[in-house]
Amino acid sequence: MWYLGTDDAGGLEALKQVGFATSDDGIRWQRHVGNPVIPVNPDLACERLAIAVPRVIRDGKLYKVWYCCYEKNDTYAIGQAESFDGIRWFRSPHNPVMDRSGEGWDSDMTAYPTVIRTADRYLMWYSGNGYGGAGIGIASAPVPTGDIYFRIGPVPRPDAQWSAWQPVGEAAPPREAYIQFAVCAVD
Predict the structure, then answer these.
(1) In the chain, where are the structural domains located?
(2) Confidence category of residue 177, pLDDT binned at 50, 70, 90
(3) Could you tell me if 162 and 93 are in contact, meaning their C-beta atoms sit under 8 angstroms apart?
(4) Which end of the chain has fewer CB atoms within 10 angstroms, the N or the C?
């Protein structure tokens, strides 16, 4: 289970992050000792104060999560990350993957995503302004097809220090610094 946890500051300034817990019976839960598993990144403006309401799906070899994020309350956007084990997550370099629109019912906020995968598309339902008071929308994106590759590096943005691209095998890639995934289309 992935869940929202918060510090004791309370109110609009509470720091919100994602924790992980497991259970053998669905009644008694054991929190992961390394929580939060998805902490805020203060260097990313879109998630300075919150990563909340995680929605995780298993998609092939990867867990994928979509979550609410914001730098101040009432300005939610939607972020995304991927993981091999559900504990160490790698954010999309495109975060936020869904920001507020320029005008209309979701111009102040896009929040509370729920995503499913169909055969060749991801479908996302999300709330707009007023925590959903303005309505619920749907968005879609194609599922990348092909072989999955990764590379790792010591800095957030890929540069000459990063490794060469390598195919994702059965084992998870090394867990150090930063990682980037790519799908190479199969002809």
Answers:
(1) 2-143, 144-187
(2) confident
(3) no
(4) C
